[in-house]
Amino acid sequence: MAQKWTNYKAHQKLVNPSNKRKLDIIVVGTGLAGASAAASFGEMGFNVKVFTIQDSPRRAHSIAAQGGINAAKNYPNDGDSVYRLFYDTVKGGDYRAREANVYRLAEVSNSIIDQCVAQGVPFAREYGGLLDNRSFGGAQVSRTFYAKGQTGQQLLLGAYQALMRQVELKTVKLYTRNELVNIVMVDGKARGIISRDLVTGKTQRHFGHAVVLATGGYGNTFFLSTNAMGSNGSAALQAYKKGAMFANPCFAQIHPTCIPVHGEFQSKLTLMSESLRNDGRIWVPKKKEDAEAIRAGKLKPTQIAEEDRDYYLERRYPAFGNLVPRDVASRAAKERCDAGYGVGNTGLAVYLDFKESIERLGEDTIRARYGNLFQMYEKIVDDNPYDTPMMIYPAIHYTMGGIWVDYELQTSVPGLFCAGEANFSDHGANRLGASALMQGLADGYFVLPYTIQNYLADDIRTPRMSGDEKEFVEAEKESQDRLNKLLSIKGQRSVDSIHKELGLIMWDFVGMARNKEGLQNAIEKIRAVKKEFWSNVRIPGSNDGMNIELEKANRLADFIEIGELMALDALNREESCGGHFREEHQTEEGEALRHDDQYAYVSCWEYKGDNQEPELHKEELKYEEIQLVQRNYK
Amino acid sequence: MEKTLNLTLKVWKQNGPREKGRFETYKVSNISVDSSFLEMMDILNEQLINEGKEPVAFDHDCREGICGMCSLYINGRPHGPDDDVTTCQLHMRKFKDGETIIIEPWRSAGFPVIKDLIVDRTAFDKIIAAGGYVSVNTGGVPDANALPIPKPDADEAMDAASCIGCGACVAACKNGSAMLFVSAKVSQLALLPQGRVEAARRAKNMVARMDELGFGNCTNTGACEVECPKGISLSNISRLNREFLTAKIKD
């Protein structure tokens, strides 16, 4: 295992510099994975075309990651190593990730930190001038590098600047406010995309010897999530429809520390970084009457005496305490709230309290560590977290599932690669904090630049296509037909109203706790939403020029199908693991109960046509390095 | 009882860069004070769609103040009447019942209007492309701890690097200058040993590109610093001027 990546690199095929100039690569998405891949391909000498739906590559949602990025540097000398990062990631993912991919991720993690520092990423430092680390959930070492509460922003700006340098050098051509609407297949291989210019409404055909999708996750299926408003699963779904398998769609991460829902008009949920759990303690009142009084506004949290507080994570998981993995922390919060101990006016919130840390370290230290997060909280909730505990509740945050890829990050469609959150590969059934940034940059800087060459080496004699070939023309027509069909519905309901309906179904039945009956119910309801959408959506305006409602409708059409796929997958997986919790499968203490004898596999769903059940393929997960055991954070 | 507001909105509508724009007046009612400004705009758009009209186009994405996508000139201030926030973090509790709110796009020669409240900010990308980076390729770099950096320098670089590229500084400036944006990037990289190597070239190239793209000159009014949602300091402009002059003297 430890040698696999070294051996791969030693024996893979390469492309010589003069041939690189003849090869075109399309990269869709400019988050950490997309921007780092596109910049690296450009530096290597390939011709790159890169697409983003935003007005600038710098706005991709990677930018919102707050807490940090993991690496096995072991700078704090606390016993970390590549093996331990590998082990923690596999365990954190509840033994549903592919060992070899995770090992490689841990192995290249250190190079990412070196690269980012060389780019001028201003990581936090100690007074001695060396890099500082902090702890994140699911680990007993401090291996998280950070830049205030804006680590994602700084890493993305590093990758974005590297990308803009290549744009200036003309190795990369940048298409902003451009969305992938179709993937072009020629002789069974991905050979290009159809993009839609979101300003003019015009579609365009683009050829590439290979296509890389780095388009992020599909958490917005739930309408309310911590994702950006524009984050969507459409590129992944288009890939699925062209034959790329969709893996583990039901593995979605519910993040435990988000600002609770406050009203019907709510458009998104705001995450409060997991790093807060380093110094914040999570609790609810011990007595139900106290919880009731708080909900009625008769009591303040600061009035609850120490002995009347239930620090339930510290109580249930003494070894990891407030730093248990996200899935565990989320379920524990739900358990307390369902039992009637929740706070806030809805009863769907728990406290995250900094009182003890402020007493121990002083307000200035806490301000230096989390100042921007506290400010963000105060602006939204109008409450000062230095004086009164924050209220938090779980929300949909990240999707571990995604397009199936092999060790080379190639999908089941030759020539189509998938990186970052969009693929399924490294996090199993639950992602650990500070590992998404690591994976995005690992894929883009240190994996794809090798593996894509191994594919392109056989393509040096394939001439560029003009885009006038029949496959391109047909793909473009297919996309235009779909847009016109959407515009022709002229129904009664706005896109958002239907999306909210879908989101509620997802949250109620395909959310934190799932069961057979609920999932069957959800599938029927989602199919009804699909029917409603295709017969009753109202999109004002036309396809000439900017039409934001049309963009949203086009994405919602895909979210509906992803929602159904998530429910189908959750129904199939008759076990609990990581973020997937089936109520029928739990231990006596309410912990997730896996069934390794039956479900130690990746569910790979193959598209079989509109309104047809997809076909399930199973990739067996063989563990050579790590022994499968029940996760224990006690 | 939850507090709600009834409001009159005067919103800039414009079909394209070359079209003539105009203000449209809309009414919204029962807006919760706990909703965000953009949620209020969502409610307006839902209302317009239900009336069979075209919604108002505005830029937004992360809705947590970090992507820099949202803009809006609200009652004469970029990102509206609250301090240190972007429009997406602005909440309706900052407004009064019965108030009239005027909503305009960024107005600057460097940022042409695309539609309604959406402007084209690709000029910022072009300025970064001119030199807003350290010229290193992927791989072949030294260990991250090989070069110690004094904590105050690293912290100051981080403060400068907090810029989200929203363009409020340009919108706030009577000259339409992009100096705060440019100086934040120049400062971040000039403060770090990794970026020091190319500091002179970077300052010259980025300033030249800024001038080419039609941004105005800086006359030190300080409006940019006041309106910057991330509190980027004017001292960055002084540093840029120093970097720029030193580079020019060496030429």
What is this structure, in a nutshell?
By secondary structure, chain A is of the alpha+beta class. Chain A is built from 18 helices and 19 strands.
Please explain how this structure is put together.
The complex is a heterodimer of chains A (634) and B (251). By secondary structure, chain A is an alpha+beta fold. Chain A has 18 helices and 19 strands. Among the domains of chain A are: 258-394, Succinate dehydrogenase/fumarate reductase flavoprotein, catalytic domain (Flavocytochrome C3, Chain A, domain 1), CATH 3.90.700.10; 470-593, Up-down Bundle (Methane Monooxygenase Hydroxylase, Chain G, domain 1), CATH 1.20.58. Helix content of chain A is 38%, strand content 15%. A five-stranded parallel sheet of chain A has the order 5-2-1-9-17, with helices on both faces. Chain A has a five-stranded antiparallel sheet with strand order 11-15-14-12-13. In chain A, strands 16-10-18-19 form a four-stranded antiparallel sheet. Chain B contains nine helices and seven strands; from the N terminus they run E-E-H-E-E-E-E-E-H-H-H-H-H-H-H-H. In chain B, the strands form two sheets. In chain B, strands 2-1-5-3-4 form a five-stranded mixed sheet. In chain B, strands 6-7 form a two-stranded antiparallel ribbon. In chain B, helix 5 (179-190) crosses helix 9. The chains are: A alpha+beta (634), B alpha+beta (251).
Which descriptors apply to this entry?
heterodimer; A: 634 residues; alpha+beta; Flavocytochrome C3, Chain A, domain 1; Methane Monooxygenase Hydroxylase, Chain G, domain 1; 5-stranded parallel β-sheet; 5-stranded antiparallel β-sheet; 19 strands; 38% helix; globular; B: 251 residues; Fumarate Reductase Iron-sulfur Protein, Chain B, domain 2; two-stranded antiparallel ribbon; 7 strands
Topology:
The complex is a heterodimer of chains A (634) and B (251).
Chain A: H1 4-11, H2 17-20, E1 24-28, H3 32-44, E2 47-51, E3 69-70, H4 82-92, H5 99-118, E4 144-145, H6 151-168, E5 172-175, E6 178-186, E7 189-197, E8 203-207, E9 210-213, H7 234-241, E10 246-247, E11 252-258, E12 281-285, H8 288-295, E13 309-310, H9 312-316, H10 326-338, E14 350-353, H11 355-361, H12 363-381, E15 390-399, E16 402-403, E17 416-418, H13 436-456, H14 470-489, H15 495-509, H16 516-536, H17 548-572, H18 596-599, E18 601-606, E19 615-620
Parallel strand pairs in A: 1-2, 1-9, 2-5, 9-17
Antiparallel strand pairs in A: 3-4, 6-7, 7-8, 10-16, 10-18, 11-15, 12-13, 12-14, 14-15, 18-19
Helix pairs in contact in A: 3-6, 3-13, 4-5, 5-13, 11-12, 15-16, 15-17, 16-17
Chain B: E1 4-13, E2 22-32, H1 37-50, E3 73-74, E4 77-78, E5 100-104, E6 113-115, E7 118-119, H2 122-129, H3 151-161, H4 168-172, H5 179-190, H6 193-196, H7 199-212, H8 223-227, H9 235-250
Parallel strand pairs in B: 1-5
Antiparallel strand pairs in B: 1-2, 3-4, 3-5, 6-7
Helix pairs in contact in B: 2-7, 3-5, 5-7, 5-9, 7-9
